[in-house]
Write a structure and sequence with these properties.
heterodimer; A: mainly alpha; ABC transporter involved in vitamin B12 uptake, BtuC; two-stranded antiparallel ribbon; B: mainly alpha; 15 helices
Chain lengths: 311, 382
């Protein structure tokens, strides 16, 4: 058991956990903003897939990770445009449209990948990392936390920025009002539709960035159905964060570590079947929901279309 | 009589419009990929419907889908989202494939068939227990919990198949194969097996259950308004568990039908992902059993024909995901257009759509109770 505290094991656990956490962090941050505004993106998984695919294509063809990640944001936002048009603007059922987006994304990305890359199955180079001077010398933490892809630090900072925007700025107030009391926001002269539109696009862009990270840094390539339910886990993380953005870091890292524990265990000679590992995050969600069933909270107008003058 | 025929015609038309539009847009996509959509669709209908061999394949494919549709209707009518179909299906399939060989040896064909089906139904039903209790007791949103349980179910099925249920014959991880002659009997001189009959009967039984029995009425009241159900002296938690268990059992049974009718054994990582694909169909049929029967068969034709057309056109059969996604999108749009023309018609019952609304005040949990009595007045109209 002493192996469990070995430097090798802990480094792999934390470092792998952070890599696996990033897609979840970005997606759940976006979903949190959008949920606060009253839009539930069941199709988050779909935005991630769109993001992962385009990010891969651009990164592969230009050789630039950053252009790839930017393309991921664009693709995710375009995916969420479906949600904006059909659910926010036309007020169609958010769950049905969400399922449609997932199916479209799964089919379209698989089809496009198959059409252009199925033969070659290219992979990208090793992602760059940014080791922070001095801090990287700390044992264990230095090699895991402070030697990551630069976007990791961006993600963690972003969680605090989003938290600050939601709680302290008027834009954040509008977003929260659109989810809690849309009629009050409307009465105050702010467009509920516009607020929800921006919030949904934000969810799409961030989920797309998460997908892009998954393809470029996490996997180094794209494979159809690469997200494997990450979008749904991100929705759960957003729900359990109860509108407090920095909590998404905790949730994402915990779920990320439940994914990286297999690789870490392999390093110290413990083999477990991948099926167990793939189940782990979902079991974690169920356990968390059973234990904290009463603690998750959603805005009162979530998933309800806003029609002016209708009570 | 005429009014009734007109209503039926209108319902058929409104269900056909989204399907046709989806086929058209999908065709444009195929053309963009450099494939001839007309050849593709000609292949599809030829292989799935016109050719006798292909049509039998379509009917065979429809067997598990019919049971899934039946399971979804029970849950949706009770205003519960069961999105965990894939996990329930695979658990049913894994348990059937795992127990069938030894039961066959000890009991013979028919007792084996019945026993494995019962085990599969139990497994599928049991898998809904946690979401049902969380939903019933604490109002935790079942969309999330059934999905999570589905992923766990997929993992458990594979762990079983690669572990205790694994064949001793080498090669791919799989269960022992049930010999062809000891699976479901075939109907007449066709290759269609008993599973199709089971599927049709289950769907009709669900129809009778929901429209003609007291349990069905109670489930529908729960669906229309849990608060009304409470006032009527019903027990919402118990009803939630019953509805979910029934739904899961039917879907678990569909896994059994797939193994005993088609596969004969469970290969590791088998997952046809039928769960999400059937959802649009039952909504398009507006949760009506007969309508679902027709649409499931139409979809099976599209799937079997489409798989073969995709092979012919050298594209992945995942193109069918796009087609189903488009069907859902156009279904929602058709509803929208009709509502704008003042002819309100819902594919998705309004109370199901509003299910996410938490209880008033400090929402006690994700989801919570829907608004009291909403949609109750619309119940009769469906």
């Amino acid at each position: 058991m002493s192996d469990l505290l070995s430097q090798e094991f802990l480094t792999a656990l934390i470092s792998g956990g952070l890599v696996a956490a990033m897609p979840l962090l970005f997606a759940s941050l976006g979903e949190l903003v959008s949920e606060q505004a009253g839009v539930l993106n069941v199709g988050l998984e779909g935005y991630m897939l769109f993001g992962a695919f385009l990010a891969f294509v651009i990164a592969y063809n230009t050789g630039s990770e950053w252009l790839g990640l930017a393309a991921g944001i664009v693709a995710g936002a375009v995916g969420s445009l479906l949600m904006v048009v059909f659910s926010v603007r036309m007020r169609l059922d958010q769950i049905v449209i969400g399922i449609a987006i997932i199916l479209l994304a799964e089919g379209a990305t698989s089809l496009l990948f198959d059409a252009s890359y199925a033969e070659s199955r290219p992979s990208l180079g090793t992602p760059s990392e940014l080791a922070i001077p001095l801090l990287k010398e700390i044992p264990i933490l230095g090699e895991s936390v402070f030697s990551q892809h630069p976007i990791v630090y961006v993600g963690i900072a972003l969680a605090f920025v989003v938290g600050w925007i939601l709680k302290r700025t008027s834009a954040g107030l509008s977003i929260r009002a659109a989810g809690e009391r849309p009629e009050a926001l409307d009465a105050a002269g702010v467009s509920v539709t516009a607020t929800r539109t921006w919030a949904t696009l934000c969810a799409g862009g961030l989920a797309g960035l998460g997908g892009g990270y998954l393809a470029i840094v996490g996997a180094g390539s794209f494979t159809p159905f690469i997200t494997q339910g990450a979008g749904f886990i991100a929705i759960v993380i957003a729900m359990l964060s109860r509108g407090v953005a920095p909590w998404t870091i905790v949730g994402a890292v915990l779920f990320g570590m439940s994914l990286s524990i297999a690789t870490a265990l392999q390093l110290i000679g413990v083999e477990i079947q991948t099926d167990y590992v793939q189940m782990l995050p979902f079991i974690a969600v169920i356990v968390v929901l059973v234990l904290f069933a009463r603690r998750s909270y959603l805005p009162s107008a979530l998933a309800l279309p806003y029609v002016r003058g209708e009570k | 009589m005429i009014a009734r025929a007109a209503r039926l015609g209108e319902a058929t038309l409104t269900a056909a419009v989204p399907i046709v539009l989806a086929l058209v847009v999908n065709g444009i996509l195929l053309a963009a990929l450099g494939r001839d959509p007309f050849t593709f669709y000609a292949d599809m209908f030829n292989r799935g419907l016109i050719q006798w061999e292909g049509f039998q394949e379509s009917i065979i494919r429809s067997a598990p889908l019919l049971l899934i549709a039946a399971g979804l209707i029970v849950a949706f009518r009770a205003n519960l989202w069961n999105l965990g179909g894939d996990g329930q299906f695979l658990l049913g399939a894994a348990f059937t494939a795992g127990f069938a060989p030894s039961l066959l040896e000890s009991l013979g064909v028919w007792p084996m068939l019945l026993a494995t089906m019962a085990i599969a139904a139990l497994a599928g039903g049991a898998w809904t227990l946690i979401p049902a209790l969380l939903r019933g007791r604490y109002g935790v949103n079942e969309i999330i919990t059934t999905l999570m349980m589905s992923f766990i179910g997929i993992g458990v099925a594979n762990v079983l198949v690669k572990g205790p249920f694994m064949t001793e014959v080498g090669g791919v991880a799989r269960t022992d194969v049930v010999p062809f002659d000891e699976r479901f009997p075939l109907l007449f001189d066709t290759r269609i097996h008993l599973g199709f009959v089971i599927g049709v009967v289950a769907l009709l039984a669900v129809h009778v259950l929901m429209t003609r029995t007291s349990l069905g009425l109670r489930l529908r009241i729960l669906g229309a308004s849990p608060r009304a159900a409470l006032h009527a002296g019903l027990r919402p938690v118990r009803l939630t568990v019953i509805a979910f268990a029934l739904s899961g059992a039917l879907i678990g049974l569909s896994g059994s039908v797939e193994i005993l009718g088609v596969q004969g054994s469970f290969r590791a990582d088998f997952n046809p992902a039928y769960g999400l694909l059937v959802i649009p169909l039952v909504f398009l049929a507006r949760l009506n059993a007969i309508g679902s029967l027709v649409l499931v068969i139409v979809f099976s034709v599209i799937q079997i024909g489409g798989e073969s057309a995709a092979r012919e056109a050298e594209i992945t059969s995942d193109v069918l995901f796009v087609l189903v996604g488009l069907m859902l999108l156009f279904m929602a749009l058709t509803e929208y257009w009709r509502a704008r023309r003042g002819r309100r018609m819902r594919f998705v019952p309004p109370e199901l759509a509003e299910r996410l609304r938490p209880a008033a005040g400090d929402g006690g949990g994700v989801g919570g109770e829907p608004r009291p009595a909403i949609g109750a007045r619309e119940m009769g109209s469906r």
